[in-house]
Amino acid sequence: MGFSVSQLLSPGNEDGVFQSNNVKFDPLHDDHGSEKSSPNDYHSDRDEEASQGRDEGVAEVKNIWHAMRQGYRDPNDSFFETAISHAQDQSYNNDEHMLFGSRQTAVELYTLHPEPAQLFRLWQVYLDNVNPLLKVTHTPTLQGRIVEAASNLKEVPSTLEALMFGIYCMAILTLTPEECQNMFKQTKEELSTRFQFGCQQALSNSNFLRTGSRECLTALFLYLVSVRSASHPKSISSMLAVAMRIAQRMGLQSENINARSSVLEAEMRRRLWWSLVLFDSRVSALGDHKPTSLAPGWDCALPMNVSDSELREETKNAPKVQEQATEAIFAVVRSELGDYTRNSPFYIAFTNPLMKPLAKKLPEGGDVALERMIEEKYLKFCDADNRLHYMTLWTARGSIATCRLMNDFLVYLESSATYNQANHDAAVSYAIDWLECDEKLSSSPLTKGFRWFLQLYFPLPAYIRIIQHLKTQPFSSIAERGWKVMKDNYEARSQGASVDRWHPIFKPFANIVLGAWDTVKKAHEQAERDIETPELVDVINRKIADMSLQGNEPTEPQAQDNAGMEMDGVQLQMPFGFGDPGMFFDMGGQPGFDPVTSAPYMAGSAPLTVNMNQLNWSSMNWGMSGMGENGNW
Q1: Is 355 exposed, middle or buried (0-12, 13-18, 19+ CB in 10 A)?
Q2: Cα 591–593–594 angle (5° rounding)?
Q3: What is d(CA 342, CA 629) in angstroms, rounded to the nearest whole number?
Q4: Pick the residue with more confidence: 562 or 482?
Q5: Which of 229, 185, 159, 336 is nearest to 582 (CA)?
Q6: CA gap 164, 130 in Å, rounded
Q7: In the chain, where are the structural domains located?
Q8: Where is 124: in which H helix or E strand?
Q9: What is the pLDDT of residues 180-206, one digit of tens each?
Q10: What angle do CA 198, 582, 26 make, to 5 degrees?
Q11: In the structure, what pLDDT confidence band is assigned to residue 38 with cuts at 50, 70 and 90?
Q12: DSSP character string of 534-594
């Protein structure tokens, strides 16, 4: 496919370039097609408070250079800071290999880029599947630069090149192996390996470890998100610590610093900071690292509920926050929920109790007030037939249900002596609500392009809470509903999964479910009451049988103990080394991942054991689709 330079660089002609080359592309200037307007044209009190906070700022970190100058100012006011920074750059000019290794030979990065037609197709996949959820890139300003770069891939600026490779990586992450083969005539593994290597090299060329560029940091963030399925959570957590330190050095966490930038730059800094802390929180939980960046102690404002078309480089005044479902609604709602969570007693108790004095006072009414605010401020404007709105609706509602379940766990810890039947019933209802919301997300064709995001949030705590109830109250009136909800969620999550591979998570999951069924069945036998085998039990047993026929049943015996699931015996501590929950159904795996084999629970044999007292509830995969873990998006 050929593009003339004049064709590529003609202002406003990008859409025509894509269309003339048979690349499906959404027009850049059609920003309002999916927005549903509000009849109310006003700012909420919360918006006004946020706006005032951006103007006024809060206590700023003192600058030691100002102190050393002791009030003396001249035209060279920042000379010493700049001179020392420059001297450091000159003194240490060969440290880019620290994380990605040294290069054996020079790499011609232009050879790793896709052909122009494929490049624009990957860009469109990114715009469809990634950008609506993360909103860390600004389409109106970035698209023209990508078109220009595609005309001469040998001369792409290093930070833009790193960002382009990060975009390729994320686009491939969202596609199935079949889609990769059909679109690009290469395997997903080949494409992922190629673009991830290219991103590493481009980041090294950008001196990313010392960068002050938001664009470079965005590239690093996209790279880390793209490799998380193939990497140990602890490894990703360590790399994310680097990204977080870079972000903090750039001042993204400080609204006072953000507000000094242009309107567009300030907003993109906020979006990137919130995406970083939410992802860092999620990965920290999976890697059993309790303190996270999603905590009280910083004041970066929430992203504004505005579409990209309202943010321009020349914009002098911040646009009015919209009372409608803009294209940024998912990112805004996840940040709202994350802000609530980081100041919540349950979150602080399970992550870092020392942060309690720094937490903001939450609105009266707790989770009820949170639910009302989210519904009235955002969700009532959503159209359930719109894929992004649908994703926002059910992730937000699932997150609120998870908030309630999390708070119940804290209530149990702090008042187990008075924890009564009403508490038990309420907790189970929260768990059921969570699974029902997750099932709507996992089963809908509207979320197909967003499955990469959902794979991080398998709602195992909800399963465990329901199963605890079934074991301790086998004749409960909600038993049938509990089994059905778990079955529906499990089947929705496992759609498209193959039976020739399985992940170690399946072992404890099968043990928990089948062990609970054994207890329930025995209780009915002793009471001489009939009970039908739940469909979930049949489904799991069939999966075990299928894997056994495929030769995936390990031969080494497993040590067994009795696994108590009763609430009274649970010491709410769960070192949770399950890795990427998306791998549970062999759906989220990336190239290079080789699951560890170990024996699944087999009917008729001694059950595999998951000792609930060895599980760490503070690092639990709370699966809150937008909130910081432990309860994060």
Answers
A1: middle
A2: 130
A3: 9
A4: 482
A5: 229
A6: 13
A7: 5-24+100-318
A8: helix 116-129
A9: 999 999 999 999 999 999 999 999 999
A10: 60
A11: very low
A12: PHHHHHHHHHHHHHHHTT----S----------GGG--S--------GGGGGT-S--TT--
Radius of gyration (C-alpha) of the chain in whole angstroms: 26
Residue 415 is predicted with a pLDDT of 83
Contacts of 260 (CB under 8 A, 6+ apart): 266
Sign of the dihedral defined by the CA atoms of residues 154, 135, 270, 626, in that order: negative
The residues, any chain, with a CB within 8 Å of residue 381's CB and separated by 6 or more, are 36, 37, 38, 323, 324, 325, 329
> Residue 603: what pLDDT?
35
| Residue of higher predicted confidence among 421 and 104 | 421
- How many DSSP H helices and E strands does the chain contain? 26, 0
Residue 142 to residues 111, 167, 261, 571, Cα–Cα distance (Å): 22, 11, 18, 50
- What CA–CA distances, in Å, run from 367 to 226, 334, 345, 440? 33, 15, 12, 22
Q: What's the confidence (pLDDT) of residue 42?
A: 30
Q: Contact 315/34 with Cβ under 8 angstroms?
A: no
| pTM of the shown model | 0.79
Contact status, residue 151 vs residue 3, Cβ threshold 8 Å = yes
| Residue entry with tokens 């994350």 | 338
pLDDT in tens, 356-412: 999 999 988 899 999 999 999 999 999 999 999 999 999 999 999 999 999 999 998
Torsion of CA 539, 541, 545, 546, to 10 degrees: 20
Amino acid letter, 142? L
Per DSSP, the three-state class of 401 is: helix
For residues 22 and 123, which has the higher predicted lDDT (pLDDT)? 123
pLDDT tens-digit profile of 72-109? Answer: 555 555 555 666 566 556 555 555 566 776 665 678 99
Strand, coil or helix: 72: coil
Structure tokens at 559: 């040590």
Distance set, CA 49 to CA 40, 254, 406, 549 (Å): 19, 16, 28, 61
Measured CA to CA in angstroms, residue 541 lies from 245, 470, 557, 601 at distances of 47, 19, 19, 9
Q: What is the 3-state secondary structure (H, E, C) of 212-279?
A: CCHHHHHHHHHHHHHHHHHCCHHHHHHHHHHHHHHHHHHCCCCHHHHCCCCHHHHHHHHHHHHHHHHH
Residue whose tokens read 């197909």: 448
Task: Report which DSSP code applies to 450.
Answer: G
